[in-house]
Amino acid sequence: xxxxxxxxxxxxxxxxxxxxxxxxxxxxxxxxxxxxxxxxxxxxxxxxxxxxxxxxxxxxxxxxxxxxxxxxxxxxxxxxxxxxxxxxxxxxxxxxxxxxxxxxxxxxxxxxxxxxxxxxxxxxxxxxxxxxxxxxxxxxxxxxxxxxxxxxxxxxxxxxxxxxxxxxxxxxxxxxxxxxxxxxxxxxxxxxxxxxxxxx
Length: 200
Description:
Elements: H1 6-16, H2 23-35, H3 38-54, E1 56-57, E2 64-65, H4 72-75, E3 80-87, H5 90-99, E4 104-108, H6 126-135, E5 140-143, H7 149-161, E6 168-171, H8 187-195, E7 198-199
Parallel strand pairs: 3-4, 3-5, 5-6
Antiparallel strand pairs: 1-2, 6-7
Helix pairs in contact: 1-2, 5-8
């Protein structure tokens, strides 16, 4: 169909490799890029390249940071360094921050355990989490993985790795529907889930 339009074919094939971009939107996104002027396109490409060049993972929590080796949350003197919230990705961290009310620090796993996709403990930052909580004086660890089978399995695995520790391990409470993602929830639901957390 697009054999006479190799440039368009290449653009569409490239966009099809972008995760989370629904196939029905690939053509719309293609038309958007083809329709904007050169300055807007250069600005878009520059923003992507700039972010790719400057952003890196925080050496402590694996959140994104730009200046230095630690993110602004880890460096903040206003955060409760005795309270750590374990999340799957930066999206969940951002959702909790937007909800407000949480004043502790974070640990970003970088995903969840999923043997069917070949994702095991070594592919996540679980070992770094275990090392971190063994060295630092945490009072409570909140397992805030999504309530999916993979998220629950990951939380259980982490809890088993931390057996015998002298701090409290809790997980999100009611208010978070089974099978849902934090990223898509409203602030009140996230706040209630954090406020009413229970022992794991």
